[in-house]
Every structure is written in structure tokens, then in C-alpha cells.
Amino acid sequence: MLSSESAKTVTATLPAVSGAIDEITALFYEKLFTAHPELLRDLFNRGNQANGSQRQALAGSIAAFAGHLVAHPDSRPDTMLARIAHKHASLGVREDQYPIVREHLFAAIAEVLGDAVTDEVVRAWDEVYWLMAHALIAIEKRIGAEAGVQDGRVWRPYRVAGRIQETDEVATFLLQPADGAPVPPSRPGQYVSVQVQLPDGARQIRQYSLSGQPDGGLQISVKRVAAGRRAGAPSEDPAGEVSGYLHAYVHGGEILYVSPPFGDVVLSEEDGEGPLLFASAGIGCTPMIGMLSHLAAAGSRRRIITAHADRSPATHPFRTDLRRLTDKLTHATAELWYEEGLQDGGELQDGEGVRCDRAEQVTAEAVTVRTGLMDLTQLSLPAGTTAYLCGPVPFMKAARTQLLAAGVPAAQIHYEVFGPDLGLS
Questions:
Q1: Is the dihedral of CA 86, 91, 92, 96 positive or negative?
Q2: How would you class 40 by CB atoms within 10 Å of its CB: exposed for 0-12, middle for 13-18, buried for 19 or more?
Q3: Fewest CB atoms within 10 Å of the CB: 165, 177, 196, 332?
């Protein structure tokens, strides 16, 4: 843990570092990519660099880790560390890359804060950095060994055995190992990284949840990310490079390079037989449908509530699968919210012959359809519910707030973030 002398220095300088952290991280990435352009080309998400979200995530993790060390000197923020480590392991991040990051990060700190960065300050923050780095390295080595990989060698060729167009924006890809060896084990809720070579030669990587477990293969579902502006963002986000490539050029027979499954937000056996809530929005339904498929295959008798929000029935991936799995599970129900579900005449059409007017909700075969934004306060959650969330960060913040207000303990609310984790708390 952090030494007492360093703790004093970090406490004294944390406000200054936190106040300048956005400027520091922006300069850090500029220095890093100038010295190592291959990292931007083949490791970091160029879209997240363009919109600044990666800088926000790095800034938040450093500040959160330092703040935790100061406030709780005898413990570590293991949940945050585990989430970062799983992402790093799936990307093939190596131990020898941590000194590179340290070099350019501390150069940025010194340039931004100037004379305030004394030798004492450098020693204290160096201690913070290596406490965090060594913790991540240890976790990454452990989970890499569990996945059967080491030293960042995660990539394995998979042949695209099939493609299913779920909606206009979402396609499912069925992947089989090109080397004929067995598929690595996975747990419901995990994801894989997919590396593709783009027309400009860059090997960009994105992470996709496993949306099912077909025999002898893996299944991922990918939403084509269009250019657009996020709420509060200063500029428009670029279109997704990898999702656009997969949708445009991958139809069957191609080779993709895929990591083993990783991810710590998984359906846990430690939950026992207690009730479950799966709450998702948009493409966030992919890990949820994977968990539901697992529970249905196991013949689970747990009380399960699946809550999903989407723009309309037409944009809702796995809508038919959700009905089928809900019917198969003895004690499962589904709650659906569609923002644009209203048809001409003021009726809500769910695409399966169920209609209701603006003020009504309709239940058919344990599926309830509503119009508007998801509101979990409308649900009666059983005591002891464990919740899993996946979707845009603003959606998950709202859902988490509603669940906490409903009395669901924070420790029983699990969430998965794709892209930079900007935090929910």
C-alpha cells in the first residue's frame, strides 16, 4: 500500500493533479502516439481517441485509484482494477508496455504542472502509478493463464461460418476456430476482442459480447456504429471503423482474429438460486441474451426479469429470441420499452400481433410492452434480486439510481461498459 510519506504528498497534490488531469491525459496521448504510432494504429481505439472519451477514462481511473489509496490505505479498488485488467488482457496488453506509459504520462504531468512537480511529488505519484500497474499486471497474468495465453499472445484465427442479420443495424457472426482446435471455455456475460485489418493497414480492435454459445464455435453480435453526436459531447463521434468493416465486408468464409473470452461481469454461481434482473438498452442486450440462453439450456427455475429499452421493435435485436427464451424459462418475464413504438392511430405495435393504446400496457405470454423510456420503478422486484446492466452509460446511471432507490444493494448491481468506462457512481 501507499507509504505514509507518499500518502501525505498525494493528498496535498491530488486537487491540483485532478484539476489538470484532462490536460495531462491529452498531452500524454499526444506524446505516446508521437513516440509509438503503432499503438494508435494497432491497439488503441481511434474513435475513442478522436472523441476524447479514452482520455476521460484514463483520467478517471488514475484519480479514482489515488483517491482510494488516500481514503482507504489498507485496501484496493479491486472491482475497478479487475474490469480494467480484463479489458487489457483481451487486447493483448503486455507487461513491458507499462514503463512506456509511465514515461510519457510523467512527462505530461511535469509539462502541465511545471515547477509544482518536485522530486518529492514525482516519487509519490510514481508510487501510485506502480501500485496500480503492478496490481493490473498481476491480475492480467492470472486471467491470461486461466485463458491459456501469456505475454499478450491472445490472437487466434477464426473462420466466419455464418452471418445472421438481426436488424438493419445489428448482425450476428458465427465463428469457428480456423485451426480446428476446441473453442476456449466461456462464462455467460463474457466478451471477446476482434482484430481486423482496415483498408489503411491499421489493425483495429473492438470488444463484443458473446450472444450465444453454438457448438464448436463462438457467436458475437455487432451493431454498426454510425457517426453522431453524444449528449453533451463537443463534437460529432466518427462512425465505427470495425463495426462498419464487419457489416460491409464480412459475410461468410473470412478469417477474423479473435481473443479468448474475458470479462468479470458474468452470471455467477455464487448468486445461488436468487432472483435476477437483466436490464439493457440497445445493443446492450447481447450479454443478456447470452445469459438467458445459458439459463434456459440449464432448465433454470429462478425468477428472472428481463427489462430492455430500444428505439422501436424494428431496432430491437433478439426480440424473437427473447420471447422464445422467456417462454422456455418457468419463472421468467420480459418488460419492454420502445421510444418510437407508436404507430399511426396512436397504437403500439410490437410486431407480434400485440397492440395497445398510449395509456395501456399489454401482457402476452409473460411479455409486457410499454412506450417511452425504461422506468424500473414500475417493476416489483423480488427481495434479494441481483441485477446486471448493459447499455449506454447514461442509461446505466439512470437504471442504477432507480435500483438503489428501490433497495437493491450496490454490491448486487453489476454492469458492463464497452468502450471507455466513464463510471456510474
A1: negative
A2: middle
A3: 165
Q: Are 91 and 205 in contact (CB under 8 A)?
A: yes
Contacts of 394 (CB under 8 A, 6+ apart): 231
More confident residue, 213 or 54: 213
Q: Give CA–CA dist 323/326, Å, rounded.
A: 5
- Tell me 26's DSSP state: H
Under the banding of pLDDT at 50, 70 and 90, the label for residue 171 is very high
> From the candidates 98, 208, 245, 338, which is the catalytic residue?
98
Of 396, 153, 156, 130, the residue nearest 258 (C-alpha): 156
Burial class (CB in 10 A: 0-12, 13-18, 19+), 86: buried
3-state secondary structure of 341: coil
Grouping H, G, I as helix, E, B as strand and the rest as coil, residue 99 is helix
Whole-angstrom Cα Rg for the chain: 23
Active-site hit among 29, 127, 129, 140: 140
CA torsion, ordered 135, 137, 139, 143, to nearest 10 deg: 180
Does 140 participate in catalysis according to the annotation? yes
Among 122-136, 195-209, 370-384, 410-424, whose mean pLDDT is lowest? 410-424
In which order are the strands placed within the sheet that holds 355-357? 342-343, 347-349, 355-357
Residue 177: Cβ within 10 Å count: 17
| 121's grid cell | 511529488
* CA 397 – CA 325 distance, rounded (Å): 27
CA distance 295 to 289: 10
Question: Tens digit of pLDDT for each residue in 140-168?
Answer: 999 999 999 988 899 999 999 999 999 99
What's the residue count for the chain? Answer: 425
Report pTM. 0.89
Please report which confidence band the pLDDT of residue 360 belongs to, taking 50, 70 and 90 as the band edges: very low
Q: Cβ neighbours of residue 212 under 8 Å, at least 6 residues apart? A: 172, 219, 289, 290, 293
Reduce the secondary structure of 77-89 to three states and give it as a string: CHHHHHHHHHHHH
